[in-house]
Specification:
Layout: E1 2-7, H1 17-33, E2 38-41, H2 55-70, E3 73-76, H3 89-92, E4 100-103, E5 107-112, E6 117-119, E7 132-139, H4 144-150, H5 156-180, E8 185-190, H6 213-217, E9 223-227, E10 233-237, E11 240-244, E12 260-266, E13 271-277, E14 283-287, H7 294-303, E15 308-316, H8 325-331, E16 337-345, H9 347-350, H10 361-372, H11 377-388, H12 391-400, H13 416-423
Parallel strand pairs: 1-2, 2-3, 3-4, 7-8, 8-9, 9-11, 14-15, 15-16
Antiparallel strand pairs: 1-12, 5-6, 5-7, 10-11, 12-13
Helix pairs in contact: 1-2, 4-5
Bound molecules: manganese (II) ion (MN).
Protein backbone atom coordinates (compact mmCIF):
# COMPACT_ATOMS: atom_id res chain seq x y z
CA UNK A 1 0.00 0.00 0.00
CA UNK A 2 1.22 3.46 -0.88
CA UNK A 3 -0.01 6.80 0.47
CA UNK A 4 -0.20 9.59 -2.07
CA UNK A 5 -0.94 13.29 -1.55
CA UNK A 6 -2.87 14.57 -4.56
CA UNK A 7 -3.02 18.33 -5.15
CA UNK A 8 -4.44 20.04 -8.19
CA UNK A 9 -5.16 23.34 -9.88
CA UNK A 10 -2.92 25.49 -7.73
CA UNK A 11 -3.06 28.41 -10.17
CA UNK A 12 -0.05 30.27 -8.84
CA UNK A 13 0.09 33.86 -10.15
CA UNK A 14 0.52 37.38 -8.82
CA UNK A 15 -3.18 37.99 -8.29
CA UNK A 16 -3.86 34.60 -6.70
CA UNK A 17 -0.66 34.32 -4.69
CA UNK A 18 -1.86 35.12 -1.18
CA UNK A 19 -4.80 32.71 -1.45
CA UNK A 20 -3.13 29.78 -3.21
CA UNK A 21 0.14 30.03 -1.33
CA UNK A 22 -1.58 29.99 2.04
CA UNK A 23 -3.64 26.97 1.00
CA UNK A 24 -0.82 25.06 -0.72
CA UNK A 25 1.58 25.74 2.17
CA UNK A 26 -0.99 24.27 4.53
CA UNK A 27 -1.55 21.29 2.23
CA UNK A 28 2.16 20.52 1.80
CA UNK A 29 2.83 20.77 5.53
CA UNK A 30 -0.16 18.55 6.30
CA UNK A 31 0.80 15.93 3.70
CA UNK A 32 4.34 15.77 5.07
CA UNK A 33 3.10 15.53 8.65
CA UNK A 34 0.81 12.69 7.61
CA UNK A 35 3.82 10.86 6.18
CA UNK A 36 2.79 10.41 2.54
CA UNK A 37 5.04 8.29 0.32
CA UNK A 38 4.60 10.30 -2.84
CA UNK A 39 2.97 13.51 -4.12
CA UNK A 40 1.07 14.22 -7.33
CA UNK A 41 0.07 17.60 -8.78
CA UNK A 42 -2.44 16.96 -11.56
CA UNK A 43 -2.01 20.13 -13.62
CA UNK A 44 -2.46 23.90 -13.57
CA UNK A 45 0.32 24.59 -11.08
CA UNK A 46 0.35 28.11 -12.51
CA UNK A 47 -2.49 30.33 -13.65
CA UNK A 48 -0.83 31.86 -16.70
CA UNK A 49 2.63 32.47 -18.14
CA UNK A 50 4.80 33.84 -15.34
CA UNK A 51 8.06 35.70 -15.51
CA UNK A 52 10.93 34.12 -13.69
CA UNK A 53 11.47 36.93 -11.21
CA UNK A 54 7.89 37.04 -9.97
CA UNK A 55 7.17 36.10 -6.35
CA UNK A 56 4.68 33.44 -7.50
CA UNK A 57 7.41 31.43 -9.27
CA UNK A 58 9.64 31.51 -6.22
CA UNK A 59 6.81 30.64 -3.85
CA UNK A 60 5.79 27.64 -5.95
CA UNK A 61 9.40 26.46 -6.39
CA UNK A 62 9.94 26.67 -2.66
CA UNK A 63 6.91 24.52 -1.89
CA UNK A 64 7.89 21.94 -4.52
CA UNK A 65 11.33 21.79 -3.01
CA UNK A 66 9.84 21.30 0.46
CA UNK A 67 7.63 18.53 -0.88
CA UNK A 68 10.49 16.80 -2.74
CA UNK A 69 12.62 16.98 0.39
CA UNK A 70 10.05 14.61 1.85
CA UNK A 71 9.01 12.31 -1.02
CA UNK A 72 9.08 11.79 -4.81
CA UNK A 73 6.88 14.24 -6.72
CA UNK A 74 5.04 13.89 -10.01
CA UNK A 75 4.00 17.07 -11.87
CA UNK A 76 1.51 16.75 -14.71
CA UNK A 77 1.14 19.26 -17.54
CA UNK A 78 -2.22 21.04 -17.28
CA UNK A 79 -4.16 23.37 -19.55
CA UNK A 80 -1.76 25.15 -21.92
CA UNK A 81 -3.22 28.59 -21.36
CA UNK A 82 -2.67 28.23 -17.61
CA UNK A 83 0.62 26.40 -17.83
CA UNK A 84 2.35 27.18 -21.14
CA UNK A 85 4.39 24.19 -22.41
CA UNK A 86 7.85 24.33 -20.84
CA UNK A 87 6.70 25.92 -17.58
CA UNK A 88 7.24 22.75 -15.59
CA UNK A 89 10.64 22.04 -17.15
CA UNK A 90 12.18 24.53 -14.77
CA UNK A 91 11.24 22.38 -11.78
CA UNK A 92 13.17 19.41 -13.17
CA UNK A 93 16.25 21.45 -12.30
CA UNK A 94 15.47 21.79 -8.60
CA UNK A 95 18.05 20.00 -6.55
CA UNK A 96 15.96 17.92 -4.18
CA UNK A 97 16.40 14.91 -1.97
CA UNK A 98 13.70 12.97 -3.85
CA UNK A 99 13.19 13.23 -7.61
CA UNK A 100 10.60 15.41 -9.32
CA UNK A 101 9.15 13.87 -12.47
CA UNK A 102 7.46 16.12 -15.02
CA UNK A 103 4.86 14.26 -17.08
CA UNK A 104 4.35 16.36 -20.19
CA UNK A 105 3.73 13.54 -22.66
CA UNK A 106 1.57 10.43 -22.77
CA UNK A 107 3.54 7.83 -20.86
CA UNK A 108 3.66 5.35 -18.05
CA UNK A 109 6.07 5.99 -15.20
CA UNK A 110 7.14 3.55 -12.54
CA UNK A 111 8.02 4.72 -9.07
CA UNK A 112 10.85 2.29 -8.36
CA UNK A 113 11.40 0.64 -5.00
CA UNK A 114 14.57 2.71 -4.66
CA UNK A 115 12.48 5.88 -4.98
CA UNK A 116 13.45 6.82 -8.54
CA UNK A 117 11.06 7.56 -11.41
CA UNK A 118 11.41 5.44 -14.55
CA UNK A 119 9.40 6.50 -17.61
CA UNK A 120 8.30 4.24 -20.46
CA UNK A 121 9.93 4.86 -23.84
CA UNK A 122 6.61 4.92 -25.66
CA UNK A 123 3.08 5.52 -24.45
CA UNK A 124 3.17 2.45 -22.22
CA UNK A 125 5.54 -0.16 -20.81
CA UNK A 126 6.07 -3.15 -23.07
CA UNK A 127 7.01 -5.09 -19.98
CA UNK A 128 6.86 -3.95 -16.39
CA UNK A 129 10.25 -2.80 -15.07
CA UNK A 130 11.68 -5.12 -12.45
CA UNK A 131 11.83 -3.35 -9.11
CA UNK A 132 8.80 -1.23 -9.99
CA UNK A 133 6.96 -0.23 -6.81
CA UNK A 134 3.98 1.65 -8.26
CA UNK A 135 2.83 2.09 -11.86
CA UNK A 136 1.56 5.54 -12.90
CA UNK A 137 -0.16 6.17 -16.25
CA UNK A 138 0.06 9.85 -17.25
CA UNK A 139 -2.15 11.70 -19.71
CA UNK A 140 -1.33 15.43 -19.75
CA UNK A 141 -3.85 18.00 -20.93
CA UNK A 142 -5.00 17.25 -24.47
CA UNK A 143 -4.71 20.12 -26.92
CA UNK A 144 -7.83 19.75 -29.08
CA UNK A 145 -6.42 22.22 -31.61
CA UNK A 146 -3.55 19.77 -32.29
CA UNK A 147 -6.03 16.99 -32.83
CA UNK A 148 -8.19 19.22 -35.02
CA UNK A 149 -5.15 20.07 -37.16
CA UNK A 150 -4.32 16.39 -37.57
CA UNK A 151 -7.80 15.12 -38.40
CA UNK A 152 -11.25 16.26 -39.45
CA UNK A 153 -11.53 19.50 -37.49
CA UNK A 154 -15.29 19.45 -37.12
CA UNK A 155 -15.21 16.23 -35.15
CA UNK A 156 -12.05 16.91 -33.16
CA UNK A 157 -13.79 16.86 -29.79
CA UNK A 158 -15.43 13.50 -30.37
CA UNK A 159 -12.27 12.11 -31.97
CA UNK A 160 -10.32 13.12 -28.87
CA UNK A 161 -12.80 11.25 -26.69
CA UNK A 162 -12.50 8.11 -28.82
CA UNK A 163 -8.69 8.27 -28.99
CA UNK A 164 -8.50 8.69 -25.23
CA UNK A 165 -10.87 5.79 -24.64
CA UNK A 166 -8.65 3.47 -26.67
CA UNK A 167 -5.50 4.81 -24.95
CA UNK A 168 -7.03 4.09 -21.54
CA UNK A 169 -8.02 0.56 -22.61
CA UNK A 170 -4.46 0.08 -23.87
CA UNK A 171 -3.09 1.04 -20.47
CA UNK A 172 -5.62 -1.31 -18.95
CA UNK A 173 -3.70 -4.29 -20.32
CA UNK A 174 -0.49 -3.23 -18.53
CA UNK A 175 -2.27 -2.18 -15.35
CA UNK A 176 -4.09 -5.50 -15.07
CA UNK A 177 -0.73 -7.22 -15.24
CA UNK A 178 0.69 -4.85 -12.60
CA UNK A 179 -2.23 -5.50 -10.28
CA UNK A 180 -1.82 -9.27 -10.69
CA UNK A 181 1.80 -8.75 -9.68
CA UNK A 182 0.55 -7.01 -6.53
CA UNK A 183 1.48 -3.46 -7.51
CA UNK A 184 -0.56 -0.33 -6.74
CA UNK A 185 -1.69 1.37 -9.97
CA UNK A 186 -2.46 5.05 -10.44
CA UNK A 187 -3.48 7.17 -13.44
CA UNK A 188 -3.07 10.95 -13.53
CA UNK A 189 -4.78 13.25 -16.00
CA UNK A 190 -6.20 16.72 -16.56
CA UNK A 191 -9.58 17.07 -18.23
CA UNK A 192 -13.34 16.97 -17.93
CA UNK A 193 -15.47 13.97 -17.01
CA UNK A 194 -18.84 13.95 -18.76
CA UNK A 195 -21.52 14.75 -16.21
CA UNK A 196 -19.21 16.18 -13.55
CA UNK A 197 -20.09 19.44 -11.80
CA UNK A 198 -18.06 22.65 -11.99
CA UNK A 199 -17.21 24.68 -8.90
CA UNK A 200 -20.26 26.80 -9.69
CA UNK A 201 -22.50 23.72 -9.57
CA UNK A 202 -23.02 23.55 -13.34
CA UNK A 203 -23.17 20.00 -14.79
CA UNK A 204 -20.83 19.40 -17.74
CA UNK A 205 -22.97 17.80 -20.41
CA UNK A 206 -22.36 17.34 -24.15
CA UNK A 207 -19.95 15.35 -26.25
CA UNK A 208 -16.87 17.54 -26.17
CA UNK A 209 -15.46 16.23 -22.90
CA UNK A 210 -12.40 14.07 -22.67
CA UNK A 211 -13.63 11.38 -20.31
CA UNK A 212 -16.56 9.25 -19.38
CA UNK A 213 -16.45 7.37 -16.11
CA UNK A 214 -16.50 4.07 -18.00
CA UNK A 215 -13.52 5.09 -20.16
CA UNK A 216 -11.62 6.06 -17.00
CA UNK A 217 -12.36 2.78 -15.26
CA UNK A 218 -11.22 0.90 -18.38
CA UNK A 219 -7.64 1.98 -17.53
CA UNK A 220 -7.93 -0.62 -14.75
CA UNK A 221 -6.11 1.47 -12.16
CA UNK A 222 -6.92 1.41 -8.47
CA UNK A 223 -6.79 5.23 -8.28
CA UNK A 224 -7.51 7.72 -11.04
CA UNK A 225 -6.26 11.16 -9.96
CA UNK A 226 -7.77 14.00 -11.98
CA UNK A 227 -7.26 17.71 -12.32
CA UNK A 228 -8.98 20.52 -14.21
CA UNK A 229 -12.36 20.77 -12.53
CA UNK A 230 -12.11 22.93 -9.41
CA UNK A 231 -14.76 21.11 -7.41
CA UNK A 232 -13.96 17.99 -5.40
CA UNK A 233 -15.88 14.91 -6.56
CA UNK A 234 -15.50 11.14 -6.57
CA UNK A 235 -16.69 8.17 -8.65
CA UNK A 236 -16.49 4.59 -7.49
CA UNK A 237 -16.44 1.21 -9.21
CA UNK A 238 -16.19 -1.44 -6.52
CA UNK A 239 -12.96 -0.68 -4.72
CA UNK A 240 -11.53 1.51 -7.48
CA UNK A 241 -11.89 5.28 -7.37
CA UNK A 242 -11.74 8.27 -9.71
CA UNK A 243 -11.52 11.70 -8.05
CA UNK A 244 -10.88 15.38 -8.46
CA UNK A 245 -9.49 17.09 -5.36
CA UNK A 246 -10.67 20.40 -6.81
CA UNK A 247 -8.58 23.56 -6.71
CA UNK A 248 -6.36 24.13 -3.71
CA UNK A 249 -7.82 27.59 -3.01
CA UNK A 250 -10.97 29.56 -3.75
CA UNK A 251 -10.37 31.61 -6.87
CA UNK A 252 -13.79 33.02 -7.82
CA UNK A 253 -16.98 34.35 -6.32
CA UNK A 254 -19.74 31.78 -6.27
CA UNK A 255 -17.51 28.71 -5.91
CA UNK A 256 -19.39 26.15 -3.86
CA UNK A 257 -18.10 23.86 -1.14
CA UNK A 258 -14.80 23.26 0.63
CA UNK A 259 -11.41 23.54 -1.08
CA UNK A 260 -8.69 21.01 -0.33
CA UNK A 261 -6.52 18.11 -1.38
CA UNK A 262 -6.67 14.31 -1.24
CA UNK A 263 -4.77 11.78 0.83
CA UNK A 264 -5.00 8.53 -1.09
CA UNK A 265 -4.07 5.04 0.02
CA UNK A 266 -3.62 2.78 -2.99
CA UNK A 267 -2.90 -0.92 -3.33
CA UNK A 268 -3.24 -3.53 -6.06
CA UNK A 269 -6.93 -4.10 -5.42
CA UNK A 270 -8.32 -0.65 -4.86
CA UNK A 271 -8.00 2.70 -3.18
CA UNK A 272 -9.30 4.83 -0.37
CA UNK A 273 -9.20 8.59 -0.04
CA UNK A 274 -9.57 11.33 2.50
CA UNK A 275 -10.44 14.89 1.51
CA UNK A 276 -8.49 17.41 3.60
CA UNK A 277 -9.92 20.95 3.49
CA UNK A 278 -7.49 23.87 3.12
CA UNK A 279 -7.98 27.24 4.84
CA UNK A 280 -9.45 28.74 1.67
CA UNK A 281 -10.91 32.21 1.91
CA UNK A 282 -14.62 32.72 2.23
CA UNK A 283 -16.24 34.69 -0.53
CA UNK A 284 -19.63 36.33 -0.25
CA UNK A 285 -21.45 37.93 -3.14
CA UNK A 286 -24.42 40.21 -2.79
CA UNK A 287 -26.14 40.98 -6.08
CA UNK A 288 -28.87 43.57 -6.70
CA UNK A 289 -30.71 44.05 -9.96
CA UNK A 290 -31.46 47.59 -8.78
CA UNK A 291 -29.75 50.00 -6.41
CA UNK A 292 -28.19 48.35 -3.36
CA UNK A 293 -30.66 47.81 -0.57
CA UNK A 294 -28.78 48.93 2.55
CA UNK A 295 -30.96 46.76 4.76
CA UNK A 296 -29.83 43.66 2.82
CA UNK A 297 -26.19 44.80 3.02
CA UNK A 298 -26.59 45.30 6.77
CA UNK A 299 -27.96 41.77 7.25
CA UNK A 300 -25.21 40.27 5.04
CA UNK A 301 -22.51 42.10 7.00
CA UNK A 302 -22.81 39.63 9.87
CA UNK A 303 -21.77 36.62 7.73
CA UNK A 304 -19.26 38.73 5.80
CA UNK A 305 -16.88 39.09 8.76
CA UNK A 306 -13.40 38.16 7.53
CA UNK A 307 -14.71 37.21 4.09
CA UNK A 308 -14.06 38.58 0.61
CA UNK A 309 -17.21 40.41 -0.32
CA UNK A 310 -18.44 41.55 -3.68
CA UNK A 311 -21.46 43.87 -3.95
CA UNK A 312 -22.91 44.20 -7.42
CA UNK A 313 -25.72 46.45 -8.52
CA UNK A 314 -27.31 47.61 -11.68
CA UNK A 315 -29.87 50.35 -12.36
CA UNK A 316 -31.22 52.27 -15.33
CA UNK A 317 -29.61 55.57 -16.25
CA UNK A 318 -32.85 57.53 -16.05
CA UNK A 319 -33.07 56.81 -12.33
CA UNK A 320 -31.39 59.81 -10.87
CA UNK A 321 -29.11 59.76 -7.86
CA UNK A 322 -25.99 57.82 -7.04
CA UNK A 323 -25.01 54.91 -4.86
CA UNK A 324 -23.33 55.73 -1.56
CA UNK A 325 -20.24 53.56 -1.96
CA UNK A 326 -18.70 54.76 1.29
CA UNK A 327 -21.81 53.69 3.21
CA UNK A 328 -21.61 50.18 1.79
CA UNK A 329 -17.92 49.88 2.63
CA UNK A 330 -18.59 51.18 6.15
CA UNK A 331 -21.37 48.65 6.64
CA UNK A 332 -18.98 45.84 5.59
CA UNK A 333 -16.09 47.04 7.75
CA UNK A 334 -15.43 43.53 9.09
CA UNK A 335 -14.78 42.02 5.65
CA UNK A 336 -11.26 41.11 4.50
CA UNK A 337 -11.90 42.86 1.20
CA UNK A 338 -14.87 44.67 -0.32
CA UNK A 339 -15.28 44.90 -4.05
CA UNK A 340 -17.93 47.24 -5.43
CA UNK A 341 -19.21 46.68 -8.95
CA UNK A 342 -21.88 49.13 -10.03
CA UNK A 343 -23.40 49.17 -13.45
CA UNK A 344 -25.65 51.83 -14.89
CA UNK A 345 -27.74 50.59 -17.78
CA UNK A 346 -27.83 53.26 -20.50
CA UNK A 347 -31.27 54.38 -21.67
CA UNK A 348 -30.67 53.21 -25.25
CA UNK A 349 -30.17 49.69 -24.02
CA UNK A 350 -32.85 49.68 -21.39
CA UNK A 351 -35.48 50.59 -24.07
CA UNK A 352 -38.16 51.24 -21.52
CA UNK A 353 -36.32 51.00 -18.25
CA UNK A 354 -38.34 51.10 -15.09
CA UNK A 355 -41.54 50.27 -16.92
CA UNK A 356 -42.09 47.04 -15.05
CA UNK A 357 -42.16 48.85 -11.73
CA UNK A 358 -45.16 50.99 -12.68
CA UNK A 359 -48.51 49.54 -11.73
CA UNK A 360 -51.08 51.13 -14.02
CA UNK A 361 -51.09 51.02 -17.79
CA UNK A 362 -51.12 54.85 -18.16
CA UNK A 363 -48.08 55.05 -15.84
CA UNK A 364 -46.29 52.45 -17.94
CA UNK A 365 -47.06 54.41 -21.11
CA UNK A 366 -45.86 57.63 -19.47
CA UNK A 367 -42.63 55.92 -18.34
CA UNK A 368 -42.09 54.50 -21.82
CA UNK A 369 -42.55 57.94 -23.35
CA UNK A 370 -40.04 59.45 -20.90
CA UNK A 371 -37.46 56.73 -21.47
CA UNK A 372 -37.69 56.97 -25.23
CA UNK A 373 -38.02 60.76 -25.30
CA UNK A 374 -41.33 61.12 -27.10
CA UNK A 375 -44.54 63.02 -26.47
CA UNK A 376 -46.95 60.42 -25.18
CA UNK A 377 -49.87 62.83 -24.79
CA UNK A 378 -51.84 61.52 -27.76
CA UNK A 379 -51.44 57.95 -26.73
CA UNK A 380 -52.49 58.67 -23.17
CA UNK A 381 -55.64 60.43 -24.34
CA UNK A 382 -56.55 57.48 -26.53
CA UNK A 383 -55.80 55.05 -23.73
CA UNK A 384 -58.11 56.96 -21.42
CA UNK A 385 -60.84 56.86 -24.05
CA UNK A 386 -60.34 53.10 -24.51
CA UNK A 387 -60.66 52.50 -20.81
CA UNK A 388 -63.70 54.74 -20.36
CA UNK A 389 -65.79 54.14 -23.47
CA UNK A 390 -67.72 51.10 -24.64
CA UNK A 391 -66.11 49.14 -27.45
CA UNK A 392 -69.12 49.69 -29.77
CA UNK A 393 -68.93 53.39 -29.14
CA UNK A 394 -65.22 53.54 -30.12
CA UNK A 395 -65.86 51.44 -33.21
CA UNK A 396 -68.67 53.75 -34.21
CA UNK A 397 -66.49 56.82 -33.74
CA UNK A 398 -63.72 55.29 -35.87
CA UNK A 399 -66.18 54.26 -38.55
CA UNK A 400 -67.55 57.80 -38.70
CA UNK A 401 -63.98 59.18 -38.84
CA UNK A 402 -64.72 61.53 -36.00
CA UNK A 403 -62.11 63.87 -34.74
CA UNK A 404 -59.90 62.28 -32.10
CA UNK A 405 -60.56 58.76 -33.33
CA UNK A 406 -57.71 56.80 -34.80
CA UNK A 407 -58.52 55.67 -38.30
CA UNK A 408 -56.77 52.48 -39.31
CA UNK A 409 -55.30 52.58 -42.80
CA UNK A 410 -55.82 48.91 -43.48
CA UNK A 411 -58.23 48.49 -40.68
CA UNK A 412 -60.16 45.40 -39.88
CA UNK A 413 -63.41 46.20 -38.20
CA UNK A 414 -63.11 43.11 -36.05
CA UNK A 415 -60.41 44.48 -33.86
CA UNK A 416 -60.23 48.21 -34.21
CA UNK A 417 -58.49 48.81 -30.94
CA UNK A 418 -55.46 46.67 -31.76
CA UNK A 419 -55.24 48.08 -35.24
CA UNK A 420 -55.53 51.56 -33.89
CA UNK A 421 -52.52 51.00 -31.67
CA UNK A 422 -50.57 49.24 -34.38
CA UNK A 423 -50.96 52.05 -36.84
CA UNK A 424 -50.59 54.95 -34.42
CA UNK A 425 -47.49 56.91 -35.18
CA UNK A 426 -45.08 55.45 -32.73
CA UNK A 427 -41.51 56.62 -32.77
CA UNK A 428 -38.96 53.89 -33.43
MN1 LIG B 1 -7.54 24.67 -13.37
Amino acid sequence: MIRVAHFSDLHYAGATLSEVHRCFSFAVATAIARGVDCAVISGDSTDHALELHTPAVQALARRLQQLAAHCPVLLLQGTYSHEPPGTLDLFRLLSTRHPIHVADRIEQVALMRAGEWLASGGWRFDSLPEEAGVVFSCLPSVNKADVAAAIDAANAAEAVGEAIASLLRGWGVVNRRARLAGLPTVAVSHGTVLGCFTEHGVPMAGLDHEFTTSSLFSAEVSAFMLGHIHKHQVWRDGTRLVAYPGSIGRLHYGEEGDKGFLLWSVDANGAGLEFVPTPARRMVHIDFDAKPDMEVVRIAAAQAQGAYVRVRWCFPEEESGTVDRAAIVAELAGAAEVKLEGRVVPVVRSRAGGISREHSLPEKVRRWAEATGVDGGGLLARLERMEAAEVEQIVAEIARGESGAIVPEHGSQECPVDDALATAELPR
